[in-house]
Amino acid sequence: MKISLINHGCAKNLVDAELILGILSENGYEITLNEQDADVVIVNTCSFIHDAEKESVQSILQMIEAGKKVIISGCLSQKHNDDLKSAIPEIAGMIGTSNLQDIIKIIKNIEDKGDYKSFIQEKPEYIYPEKTTRQQITMGASSYLKIGEGCNYQCGYCIIPKLRGKYISRPIENIVKEANELADKGVTEIILIAQDTSSYGIDLYGKQELPRLLEELNKIENLSWIRIMYAYPTQMTEELMNAIAHLDKVVKYVDIPLQHSHPRILKEMKRPVMDYTELVQKIREKIPGVTVRTSLIVGYPGETEEEFEHLYQFVKDVKFDRMGVFEYSREKNTYSYGLKPQIPAKIKKQRRNKLMELQQKISLEHNEKYINTDLKCIVEGYTDDGVIILRSEHDAPEIDGVVYANSNRQVVPGDIETVRIEKADEYDLFGKITD
Ligand code: SF4
Prior knowledge:
This protein is an alpha/beta fold. The protein is about 35% helix and about 20% strand. It has 3 domains: about 1-120, Methylthiotransferase, N-terminal domain (Rossmann fold), CATH 3.40.50.12160; about 140-370, pyruvate-formate lyase- activating enzyme (Alpha-Beta Horseshoe); about 375-435, CATH 2.40.50.140. It is built from 14 helices and 19 strands. The protein has a 6-stranded parallel β-sheet with strand order 2-1-3-4-5-6, sandwiched between helices. Strands 15-16-17-19-18 form a 5-stranded mixed beta barrel. α9 (about 210-215) runs parallel beside α10 and α13 runs parallel beside α14 (about 345-370). It is globular. The protein starts with a strand and ends with a strand. The protein binds iron/sulfur cluster.
């Protein structure tokens, strides 16, 4: 029996997909990367917002139509449980977000031609399968590394704590061991992920231990870069800022989703109400040369024109180096679902466009600062025309820009090279690898 997997959603889901494949191959199952070639296809789904759910459902239907036995894992199965089976009766089995190991029971059941089966823990409690070696789908110079799962916050728009449970940190020694294994395989950049990386350790060690984890990871010789994603504002402690500033392998990059600036909206979002301008200023002071990325939500229920203008002015003043803007998506079972008034789609779109237009100018200004300077960049690959694609420490994979460069010599993916920047646009940089 050949098994394939289609993954949807975020990097955390990608790691779970790779763990599921690892569990399958440890149990002797044959994996194929081509789903058309498989008898069974696992669709690892995303349920963060409605559009993501739609994409996952499309995959499920396509695979059923192609005559595959389809198993659902990830957030959609956790959210809808057996209701999903009622809506799509052809589904052969389901596992919840903290039932990765149960995939084997589902597969065996299919082999035995048993009826539909599901393993979905009602209250998810994600324990990382430490003994499993991930089977990486996208093996490159950079690799995600999950340091915890779940979330203890209750943001008004977010369903994640319901789908992923409380925050559970992995022990430091296990993360360091995995980082060493990745480095031995040729990974030069590791990207630490969790729903909220900055709260790492509180559940396990009684205090924030991300700085200690960074110190340990910094000792791994073959690693070049360590990147942290998804920090929570109140956990951006001085100790953490110092660790980022002083550890040489930790890239000077802070990804801190702030979501809004107006105190009333932040309160309604159940997010920390604090002066974010001051916070970003402090980050910039403590970590020289830092790149600050944030993400924002526009059109949260009740957001008035004045409150949006507050956010606009905030973006204009702070000048984030990198920024993503999302239109609020109304999700059932969240606090904000029942809030009134909901903002019309047209206004949400207008507000997003307005912020993005502003950010493009800011981003161009930031990028132009790099012209005629040398940047350390990681080699990612080549374009079809043979131009080298690299990424600087100021950019995270998939969400930020890249650096295109020519070179007089051969370069190897994963290596760190120095690029002399000659040109910039809003997103990307262009230059030449120095000899
Ligand atoms: S911090 Fe907020 S937005 Fe992020 S996962 Fe937790 S509840 Fe959701």
